[in-house]
Input
Amino acid sequence: MDISGGVETLTITGAVPGTHLEVRRSDGTEVVTLVADHAGNAHLAFVPEHPIVVDSPKALSAMVAGGRPLEAGDYTVHGDDGTELGGVHVIGLADVPDPSFYDRELPEGFGYMTMRDGVELSVMVRFPNQDLYGPPPWPTVVEYSGYTPSDPDAPQPGTLLANLMGFAAVGVNMRGTGCSGGVFDLFSPAQAADGYDVVETVARQPWVLHGHVGMVGLSYPGITQLYVAAAQPPSLACITPLSVIDDPWRQQWPGGIYNSGFTRAWVAARDRATTAGGQSWDQRRIEAGDEVARDNQRIRTQNFDFEQFGRSSQDFQALQRSRFLAEMVGRIQVPVYLTGAWQDEQTGSRFALMLEDFANSPEQRYVLFNGHHPDGYSPMVILRWFEFLNFHVARRVPKVHEMIRMFAPAQFAEVFGFSPELEADRFGHHGDDLEAALAEYRSEPRVRLLFENGAGHEVPGATAHRFEIGTDTFPPPGVRPRRLHLADGGRLVDDAPATAGVDEYRDDPDAGEEAYSKDLLVDMDRFAGTSVPIDWTRFPDGCTASYETEPLESPLVVAGSGHVDLWLRPGTSDTAVQATLTEIRPDGHEVRLQCGWHRPVHRVEDPALSDELRVDYTFAPEDRRALVPGEWIRFRLPVYPLTALLRPGSRLRLTLSTPGRDHPFWCFENPVVDGATHQVGRGGDHASALVLPAWDVVIDHPEDLPAPGALRGQPAREARPISNVAAHAEPVGSAGG
Output
């Protein structure tokens, strides 16, 4: 039997199946009792609140949501009869090896790399075309995730693009995925430590220019960069995270409501892919005789059930906080290039809430736009990614090879559905004078806000914006709260009505399962193209309370997050509320802008994450408060970050409802009761209001409206008039939950 300690993990192999293995701290305190599985394996990363007997990872995943990570320190393992079977030291993320540990050769092609705890990760090293870019050393990037970055036959997008543009690229599969060893644990400290070890090992290769590497990747490999950079590997030059999240828990429980759409499906897919041979390419290698890959699969019996774990993690507690990205990015000490779409169908736009938290990064570049999840690699922005990597990894003036320019339009047509020319080199006039080029680059605003992506090219829906504005912060300077009060007749007005009024809406029990592009969960690549099939269903009559402005007399620019200051008189002891912002255009089309969600049993705001515009909650179990049917409550319902320009003649509409129907992929397990009715206060003592991040700025923009349906991430449909329901004297519906 072998007992080994990793980064906040303890792993046992070779035990007699069925043996009870009691884990104790060095002072003799019992932590948990693990039962060796049929393969003789046991693994511990999460510690339950109280000592229990755990007979499988699946059982632990349902019990440990309120627990905590396994702490670094000394432990002993005892058998059924209490006999000590061995001791082990569990290390922490900061316990890094001696630098000599990283002095290992990585040849071109497929291989393995050993981590500080002995786990082997599968690695694929790809060199750039030497006919185009010459002999080594080359600038080098790492793409690291639980997808298939080390699959020799299928480079991931970041790797492919970097290779084409002259970078060596190293794809690495996380522990517990692909051909890599170890137990899979989503966004764990062990994965961050592995990323540190990967960066330091790759940076020491003789073919790496400058002895430093960057990181690339969109979505999963983008999120992973943030965890790795927060671990502060000294040989990391920069990171380029695209289409990321700010917190895994809030992704699974937006507003405290379980996300039964994309997030559940994604986590379930990770569970399937991390079973032995679960990615197919790893099974092919095993069948071809890769004994390391075969041996690495044996511990997969201890992989956690993360779908079950996520569903059982109804509150934000110590274990969830230990992986809260927004609290980690302040540790990042390298330059950051980050892009994101306000209507991202997969990850949403909460990423923008942490942009000003990269306080220790020496340089940041943010590119923000309306659009879809894949747009970070689109022709609209890819040259800015290339510039950033050249300045910080290659340390040279960015210049795209003419051969790449020649073939790029055809390549982009395959993925994005149109054939654009690449943006011209912006710093070629400096020749090879890096300092002069960098000085010009650093004089630019660090935030690019791109407007009306999808309407900037002759092909409707193509990834091209119509206009942009630069700023040094997000939200930009000059953004102020603008209160628009809910009024009678479905109006939004500047002044709070003196007379109180009440509207009501009925819960829609079918809304939670209705996302308008959910059928594309099996064909998500369609979101890169110029058109996305949608079925934007409407709420039944009586299931919304809506309010809109008069036609605007001047342009309205919103930039940031907002909220609804809502007075609600619930008809049940638990419910959830959605706020949807749409633009009602003069041509009669309704265009989706943004949504937000909250389950008001979570009643305590987190003051560190809230201000006059932004709102977030503790989501702690002790801060839950059951609703009292018939009693007024006041809470702030967050609206996710966005930027948008509304032209004169348009009206801004706010719709309150049960969560659902107004998002492409996210579905919700709503705590609603069929037939229950809730009342919305307006004016008087219950003056609800929409609070917008209004930006007092003059933007040079096209006067004409973009074609309806052209804007990426913003579907359009025929607008219907508001028909709110006058409230009864008392709330209608069940008094139960």
Q: What stands out?
A: The longest strand covers residues 556-569.
